[in-house]
Amino acid sequence: MASVKLEGVWKVFGNVVAVRDVNLYIEDKEFVSILGPSGSGKTTLLYLIAGIYKPSRGRIYFNDVDVTDLPPNKRNIGLVFQNYALYPHMTVYENIAFPLRLRNFGEPAIKEKVLSVAKLLGIEGLLDRYPAQLSGGQQQRVALARALVKEPEVLLLDEPLSNLDALLRIKIRSELKKLQKELGITAIYVTHDQSEALAMADRIAIIASGVIQQVGKPWDVYYKPRNVFVASFIGTPPANLVSVPLDSSRRCLLLPGGGRYCPPRRIAEKLAAVKTNSVILGFRPEVAVLSESPLGDYVSMEAEVYTVETLGRENIVTLLVNGSQVKVIVPPVVEPRPGSRIFINIEEDKVMYFDPETEINVEYLEVPGMEEAIAESAGTLRKQEMEEEWD
Ligand SMILES: Nc1ncnc2c1ncn2[C@@H]1O[C@H](COP(=O)(O)OP(=O)(O)OP(=O)(O)O)[C@@H](O)[C@H]1O
Ligand SMILES: [Mg+2]
After folding, report:
1. N or C terminus: which one in the chain shows less Cβ crowding within 10 Å?
2. Is Translocase among this UniProt entry's keywords (predicted)?
3. Which CATH superfamily is domain 238-377 in?
């Protein structure tokens, strides 16, 4: 099995930079999703790993061996494309056997391997059929069987479930993850569907305009988005963003509705380092509580109710705050009247802060000299105590 490493990888087509300076390490047996909008460079990145494209710059390693100049058939990969690309004139059996015939396997070995992988994917009853006689989900399994039969070290999948209906997608995605773990294959899975990425991946690499925005576990990219793009790309509805002025000390926020809120020192130090007079405040729709007056111990903003969508299990309330629309998920009994004034309350540690200029989450900012500044102001505090306080 194999780890995959990309070092400073670029791919330029004419004047389009499809992939820009990507550095990515994928562990052996890891399942990594590459998630991004249409045209962000996902397929290009996958084809670079597969060897279908050669990088314009940078190197690619499998297990620390430089494979940058190796063609796809020397890389021990399995590829599954979005459109399955089964051979229509071959039976399922022959489709799956094809990669083995290319490698000159003998007939008994081919039969054994095809039957074994077909059984694994539950398609052993379909081996005599032609692709046109299969459903989309069955074709998908055949494509997967054909990729797996070579026992690849790295399985590369490009939006493999996008042609299937929603129910089948959910069913196959859990099977696929289980299979990947059972076989111990390294998997790189391209999708623009964030729920698929969050559900399947050990880690997600979020890409926009050819640039990796963040790589992290589903929990990290959801609750600790590195920038505005990730915050507003992940989540349904995505994170809310409101521009809020800072006071003259640049350590406290002047909240809509008149409240003044001074975040904990850990955040305040970073806000003070941001060279603007405002900050983008972010919060997830499900962390906010609505109330008629501000709740103590919460960060509270006044808002106007715009619309209420009743979805059965929950309601989604759209509100206007400082000219921005925000969405809050509330229990079905909460149904505020459109046009009324109301307060949005968020727990202190659920609030995110982004620098309006760079759009970076301030938690990720390295503030130079901060440690020393704290040490000075902390006076007699022992270092260990300080570290505990700042954790
Ligand atoms: N062979 C090519 N020649 C020229 N430009 C290309 C080529 N392949 C991709 N591009 C461009 O590179 C960018 C990234 O394309 P890519 O196919 O990697 O996007 P993607 O994230 O896979 O999108 P989608 O979700 O729509 O499949 C796009 O702007 C695309 O037009
Ligand atoms: Mg693509």
Report:
1. C
2. yes
3. Nucleic acid-binding proteins (2.40.50.140)
The Cα 388–Cα 79 span in angstroms is 48
From the CA of 192, the nearest ligand is 1
What pLDDT score does 391 carry? 39
Q: Are 227 and 214 in contact (CB under 8 A)?
A: yes
For 73, half-sphere exposure in the C-beta direction (CA atoms, 13 angstrom radius) is 4
CATH architecture of residue range(s) 4-228: 3-Layer(aba) Sandwich (3.40)
The preferred substitution site among 9, 10, 42, 213 for testing ligand 1, maximizing ligand atoms within 8 Å of CB, is 42
Q: How far apart are CA 194 and CA 222, in angstroms?
A: 10
CATH 3.40.50.300 maps onto the chain at: 4-228
Which ligand 1 atom sits nearest the alpha carbon of residue 82?
27
Q: Following DSSP, what letter does each residue of 89-108 receive, concatenated?
A: TS-HHHHHHHHHHHTT--HH
Atom of ligand 1 nearest to the CA of 190: 22
Rounded to whole angstroms, the Cα distance separating 318 from 311 reads: 13
Instruction: Choose which residue among 10, 13, 33, 48 to substitute to test ligand 1 binding: the one with the highest number of ligand atoms within 8 A of its C-beta.
Output: 13
Å from CA of 227 to ligand 2 middle: 23
With pLDDT > 90 as the criterion, what percentage of the chain qualifies?
Answer: 76
**Ligand 1 atom nearest 37 alpha carbon:** 25
246 bridge partner residues: 253
Q: What is the pLDDT of residue 363?
A: 93
Residues sharing a CB contact under 8 Å with residue 213, sequence separation 6 or more, in sequence order: 206, 207, 226, 227, 229, 230
Ligand 1 mean position, distance from CA 252 (Å): 43
Q: Is the CB of 206 inside a 6 Å radius of any atom of ligand 1?
A: no
Q: Which residue has the higher pLDDT, 390 or 233?
A: 233
Average pLDDT over residues 188-217: 95
Positive or negative: CA dihedral 371, 375, 377, 381: positive
Whole-number Å distance between alpha carbons of 157 and 66: 22
pLDDT tens, residue by residue, 112-149: 999 999 988 889 999 999 999 998 888 988 998 999 99
Amino acid at 376: E
